[in-house]
Amino acid sequence: MEGISRMNNRIRHKLLQDKIVTADEAATWITDGMLVGMSGFTRAGDAKIVPLALVEKAKTENFKVDVYTGASLGPEVDQYMAQAGIIRKRAPYQGDPVMRNLINQGEILYTDAHVSHNAELIRTGIVGPIDVAIIEAVAITEDGMIIPTTSVGNSPVIAQHAKEIIIELNTAQPAELEGIHDIYMPGVQGKREPIPMTNAGDRIGTSGIPVDVSKIRGIVLSEMKDAPSLIVPPDEETAQIADHLLTFFRQEIEAGRLTKELAPLQSGVGSVANAVLNGFLDSEFENLEVYSEVLQDAVFELIDAGKVKVASGTSITLSEAYGKEVYGNLKKYQSQLVLRPQEISNHPEIIRRLGLISINTALEVDIYGNVNSTHVTGSKMMNGIGGSGDFARNARLGIFVTKSYAKGGDISSIVPMVSHHDHTEHDVDVIVTEQGIADLRGLAPKERVELIIENCAHPDYKEQLRDYYNRAVEATNNAHTPHLLAEALSWHVKLTETKSMK
Amino acid sequence: MEGISRMNNRIRHKLLQDKIVTADEAATWITDGMLVGMSGFTRAGDAKIVPLALVEKAKTENFKVDVYTGASLGPEVDQYMAQAGIIRKRAPYQGDPVMRNLINQGEILYTDAHVSHNAELIRTGIVGPIDVAIIEAVAITEDGMIIPTTSVGNSPVIAQHAKEIIIELNTAQPAELEGIHDIYMPGVQGKREPIPMTNAGDRIGTSGIPVDVSKIRGIVLSEMKDAPSLIVPPDEETAQIADHLLTFFRQEIEAGRLTKELAPLQSGVGSVANAVLNGFLDSEFENLEVYSEVLQDAVFELIDAGKVKVASGTSITLSEAYGKEVYGNLKKYQSQLVLRPQEISNHPEIIRRLGLISINTALEVDIYGNVNSTHVTGSKMMNGIGGSGDFARNARLGIFVTKSYAKGGDISSIVPMVSHHDHTEHDVDVIVTEQGIADLRGLAPKERVELIIENCAHPDYKEQLRDYYNRAVEATNNAHTPHLLAEALSWHVKLTETKSMK
Questions:
Q1: Where is the catalytic site (chains A, B) (predicted)?
Q2: Res. B230: pLDDT tops 90
Q3: How many CB atoms neighbour CB B440 within 10 A?
């Protein structure tokens, strides 16, 4: 644990310096039936040691709480608290295999919501009242502002609407994070001003979260690092996806629809989206801007390579290796980074104004361009919709990427009808697989079918897809969106029964 | 036809006064393969007499054009031009039975798009180049601005991006329309400022559409009135839907989430949505604001009753009777009306900022809250998504209304899985039928099922729905969103085969 003078540097508000308590004591304040709001977004900047104390407390006490966060948290909540059986309901995003299984066994209720919508629900009290907020901080300022760590997420709105706040003051997070955040709160609907941002790197708010310090009940000291991200490196097929996309961008430049600097880039969570951004490394593109949600390894690689000049997001989620590099040299990146509340990083107003290029991962896509991002064979939740809907709906280019097959070829990612709809045909501009690219903008359903099957489907499934479509055209007398409803989901049924769509 | 001095009052730009041509001559400028942009939104302010001349020309000449408009047009285009076989592709909305049938027979291609997205597609040239624009106007100003008539729609962006423009100067449209429009163009993405609007009634633009007058190739004089709207009067069940909604609003006020003035109201196109607004007439609510897309009869009834103080939209579509009343007394309404481009009336930036209450009609809803607004049994296009997605996604309250049954009870509007997805579970806050209301905000899928079946389904179908859900829970071991994929669309299959879902 650090010395007192260094700690005073972190807790700069005089009234708070005697509020330090143990995690065990803070855990006693959390009781059965409470709604607990927590900091954290994709395993970054999340509450960690009070959750572990709650897991300990669960050994001798029966209780369950609802947990509302920014997005997915690390193992302390989404694995250990879940396993301990003390979470009744979870929202608005998760990505841990343990949490996922419990959701799909009906043990934990889960509400999956657009990343930009959560704050409105909290502000109006639809989600609430929040009994306790647990917010990880790197410091508390003289005037009582909470300085978040590696994510902002929903922490501002959670802190402001919670009845009381527990701070996890984390000295393992570098002090240089202070100054990276930009906290802008849009206020009550109907009394709002326009959000005064016209560039990805604009700073429009405060450097921390202003709170009523009398609500801060306790400060728990922590030295636990964020859990590293679990992304896997690019492979041949993700590189092909990136290549197709770069070719497409070059064509857009030629058509006068993009400039050499492209437009602010958004890239979704996970390995495929990270690999696609990676593709820019060896390209001619430079002076790029990132206006995204999660800043993953590839963003920092692009900054290091001098390709990206500014990156805005709501969290930084890095692999173990890259985390050491970035957090050991944070000063270097400080002027190029902005972390915002998730309702601002994902706000439709900004996404439409800046005209983002949005790249997100699809689980499966259908022949008309509808996208499933969340459910395996219609019923089982994977992670959640996250910000993909915020971005795809309002971006200049709503791009979805996926490999054309999964499970060694037993699954086709292109299907007659997706088994769950997260993004409708109206919100999907471009689909890319390792096979090729389908630019669907302005096209009628029948025009889309042709492109999606020919350019994106795996060769093993093309004939089967064409056959479905041709018979659907026949059976519906060539209706607007030909489907055979008795057969539309049969590929998924077959998969469940025989382990293959073939 | 009017006298010369009165006509000079309408064509006030000196260079244009000798541009008057016949509709037949203008029709000769439109040739095979062209993309024609036309004014008009839900049968209001649409091009009429050049389309009729094109129908005439088709008797002796083979040609086909693509037609891009604001939304649905009157019979001159969506009936007569369609019947004449001269439309290859239609976008972005339609609602005429003739057009609909041709789309569903594969005779006309149709692209159905969010109302707020069209302008971006035209601006970037994805839709384009527009060879000719045909714009109905009530006047052309001294400085060459086109003053639209009863709708603005996509006319500004179409006029600015078309190679040449034909004006239908319509003297049957009241001159007092001038001053009602507010034309604001957001400019190129990435170089935009915030849209400077914070109240439903704010005027932020010009009174007409600024164009390069040298592009105006001809002016055709017209005296054809808009086709009246075809809405049917409220009935017992739509009155019940309105009652449920008013009760819900009262509860929201009690919970402190709404004030007595509610929030700016948006109400979708058609009879059910009109009837719901009608319900406010006998209520205690007043000082209401409307920020909508189409202003139908009910909006004017509410203005007349002193309930609505300001109404903003992109078009005015009235029944024959109400049209006489309103257009005969337009002075009376002038200060309370604003007509905007559809990308502004439906802009996510404004919808989220003002926090609209959005009320749209569903064709069918499923047990998890997904909504189908467009397709009959999955394949056949009805009208289109229109603005429902713009509003539902970003509104304070995304409400969908529908009667719980159709075809005398042979169809349940609540089904296991919708046969086409326009609005996903993430975008649907509240569902209302004559049976009752389901407030889905913040709920997990399994919590939603209970409310939707119990409160909204018709009693004849409740048991059948519960049975599906219970068996899905069993078969999926209680997964997140239990579905029986082999059966999910079987109600629609049965309907097609036996004419009943029972």
A1: 293
A2: no
A3: 21
Predicted confidence (pLDDT) at residue A2 exceeds the cutoff of 60: no
Tell me: do A327 and A454 sit in the same domain.
yes
Residue A481 scores a pLDDT above 90: yes
What is the C-alpha to C-alpha distance for residues B221 and B172, in angstroms, rounded to an integer?
Answer: 10
Mean pLDDT along residues A307-323: 95
Tell me: pLDDT of A21 over 50: yes
Q: How far apart are CA A283 and CA B329, in angstroms?
A: 63
Please tell me which residue, A477 or B270, carries the higher pLDDT value.
A477
Which residue in B136, B178, B252, B293 is the catalytic one?
Answer: B293
Cβ <8 Å between B378 and A488? yes
Averaged pLDDT for residues B394-423: 98
pLDDT of residue A1: 46
ipTM > 0.95, yes or no: yes
Size of interface A-B (CB pairs under 8 A): 220
* Residue pointed to by tokens 């509610």: B262
A271 annotated as belonging to a binding site for a ligand: yes
* Predicted local distance difference test score (pLDDT) of residue B4: 65
- Strands B308-313 and B337-339, sheet pairing: parallel
Q: Kindly calculate the radius of gyration of chain B based on its CA atoms and give it in whole angstroms.
A: 23
Do B194 and B171 belong to one domain? Answer: yes
To the query of whether residue A293 is one of the catalytic residues in this protein, the response is: yes
At residue A210, what is the residue type? P
Instruction: For residues A154 and A258, state if they share a domain.
Output: no
Together in a domain, B79 and B24: yes
Per the structure, how many domains does chain B have? 2
Is residue B382 located within the same domain as residue B441? Answer: yes
Name chain A contacts of B446, Cβ cutoff 8 Å: 106, 109
A76 phi/psi in degrees, rounded to 5: -60, -40
pLDDT score, position A3: 60
Mean pLDDT (chain A) is: 96
In DSSP notation, A136-185 reads EEEEE-TT-EEEE-SB-BTHHHHHHHEEEEEEEEETTS-GGGTTTB-B--
Are A489 and B490 an interchain contact pair (Cβ–Cβ within 8 Å)?
no
Residue A58, min C-alpha distance to chain B (Å)? 25
Annotated binding site of B: 268-272, 383, 387, 407
CATH number, domain with residue B174: 3.40.1080.10
- What tokens does A149 get? 């760590």
Is there a binding annotation on residue A370? no
- Closest-CA distance of chain A to residue B483, Å: 6
**A415-436 tens-digit pLDDT:** 999 999 999 999 999 999 999 9
| Residue-range definition of the domain harbouring residue B109 | 1-222
Interface with chain A: mutation pick from B118, B251, B364, B424, highest number of A CBs within 10 Å: B424
| Closest-approach residue (CA) in chain B for A495 | B485
Contact call for B485 and A419, based on CB within 8 A: yes
- The nearest CA of chain B is from the CA of A371 a distance in Å of 11
With CA atoms as reference, the chain A residue closest to B199 would be A190
pLDDT digits (tens, 9 = 90+) for A56-78: 999 999 999 999 999 999 999 99
Structural domain includes residue B490: no
Chain B: residue nearest A92 by CA? B442
**pLDDT score of B231:** 83
Beta strands A288-291 and A308-313: pairing type? parallel
Whether the per-residue pLDDT at B3 is higher than 80: the answer is no
